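Ticket opened by: R.M.
Priority: normal
Category: complex prediction / small molecule

The reporter submitted a protein together with 2-acetamido-2-deoxy-beta-D-glucopyranose and asked that the result be attached to this ticket for the collaborator who will pick it up next week. Submitted input follows.
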Amino acid sequence: MWTGYRILIVSSLLTEIWMEKQYVSQRQVDPGADFTRNHTVLEGTRFKRAIFKGQYCRSFGCCEDRDDDCVTQFYEANALCYCDKFCERDTSDCCPDYKSFCHEEKEWPPHTKPWYPEGCLRDGEHYEEGSVIKENCNSCTCSGQQWKCSQHVCLIEPELIEHVNHGDYGWTAQNYSQFWGMTLEEGFKYRLGTFPPSPKLLSMNEVTAPLAAITDLPEFFVASYKWPGWTHGPLDQKNCAASWAFSTASNEVILINSL
Ligand SMILES: *[C@@H]1O[C@H](CO)[C@@H](O)[C@H](O)[C@H]1NC(C)=O
Ligand SMILES: *[C@@H]1O[C@H](CO)[C@@H](O)[C@H](O)[C@H]1NC(C)=O
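Result attached by the on-call engineer:
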């Protein structure tokens, strides 16, 4: 068994050496090609094949011999792949559709323009046409190989946080996760008060009642002393646009309890 492995290792080493020789001889035959033997290119010969749906050579064209411009990023394997005749070796670095496409072609039309797969890139990742991603409060769509983003002002703007924290304002700003991804408008709408009162409500008169002649207000008062276990810290209304309701309800709880 072990000998078997060793034979396997030795034979794959020989294949590598043979391949390198092929590179070199190819280089000599074709001195015009500006071929820098590249780590990436070598790695490309060893990549694992992945299931692939796209069309490389079909969109890219097929080239004669080794042509270093006839290379494209094979995203699925994070490597380079070729559509030139030279890619057909023991350890192939051909693009996935090389065999099906380039072998069918009678002529080998050299490609005319560098071809990039459809879609967009972001942080080194490839996204298909029509993909939608969220960038803070804006959504970006990949269209015509470019990201097109909505232009909302966000509730959290990282530049503003940085600006505040670099100035001498006596306070520091930070990124509150619960506000991340909201527009400024949504912040106003949902985090602050509720809708303005209707004119009908505004035209109501306040109820006046005579105060008791003697009001006996204590000088010192702490609700949690008076009602232990019945008070709590401020509640989070979340995106409910309900600050009036929240404050009213809190006051009512106190009032009810104090009666
Ligand atoms: C070699 O790799 C560099 C980056 O690592 C790249 O810019 C260059 O195009 C590569 N050359 C070839 C022939 O692939
Ligand atoms: C702010 O917080 C959110 C949620 O935790 C995070 O996704 C985002 O990257 C943070 N932004 C910055 C600029 O730190």
